[in-house]
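Good morning C.,

I know you're traveling, so I'll keep this short. The sequence:
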Amino acid sequence: MSKRILITGGAGFIGSHLCERLLNENNDVICLDNFFTGSKDNIRHLMSNDHFELVRHDITKEYYAEVDQIYNLACPASPPHYQYNAIKTIKTSVLGVTNMLGLAKRCKARILQASTSEVYGDPHVHPQVESYWGNVNPIGIRSCYDEGKRCAETLMMDYHRQNNVDTRIIRIFNTYGPNMDPNDGRVVSNFIVQALKGEDITIYGDGSQTRSFCYVSDLVDGMIRMMNNEQGFIGPVNLGNPSERTILDFAKLIIEMTNSNSKIVYKPLPGDDPTQRKPDITLANKELGWVPKVDIREGLNKTIEYFATKIQKDEKILVNV
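The tokens, ready to paste straight into the viewer:
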């Protein structure tokens, strides 16, 4: 049976893929976005669909609608974006989640919070399991995002316990794929864009820090499984690919796959940058039957193709101007 679904941050990288998937499953989708980091280009092809509705709105302000499910993705997710206006970032996580929980309470909707692996901070436990409470600096340059997301999880649990709101919490690990912003400052987009342009590939630190990269279609599958789970499992649950690699090895892989002549250069590591990031997905597999399926090379081929097309298009626009 089709549902009426609200997706905050629906014009963003992950949100746009989620909108498309849910529309393909014959749902009515309301895409809510203030376009701080989201883009109409990501959802333009959905605009002609009668079951799709786009609303420009900031979730720090109340929003009213009659919906069955709410996916709360609204929040800048890359360090340059969330540090640009740190106060606004934490308001989005705290006030925004409060407003969405209020909406869920009023219309008895199920709500899923897109939390993050950043709640673990620079972890002392590896790989990260959901029972680990984390190692987070509450006053650092990343705190607006890390602590904002941690507080959002607290609000989700308190609304569930106190007001019986039907909540779900996922913790998203590094995700990549088409519709990423070329200038978002994340590892995948930085390396691919630099490689395609023949620029130096910038590694912060010595490159020994690790990350685990999950393709966006796998993540969206996990999100929908979590939202539609009827077994009483509310999370939090890790969603990510446990295949871990160093940043240096990842840079070399990008150079190889793009046939680039780029050289690797090193710059100082930013403050509070985690040295290790790898999800333990035992719980996701047990409760949701979920494991990522897309191989890193398959996912990167699609992502590189997306960025190559986007760069070519942007260059044509500059020439015409």
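Safe travels,
E.
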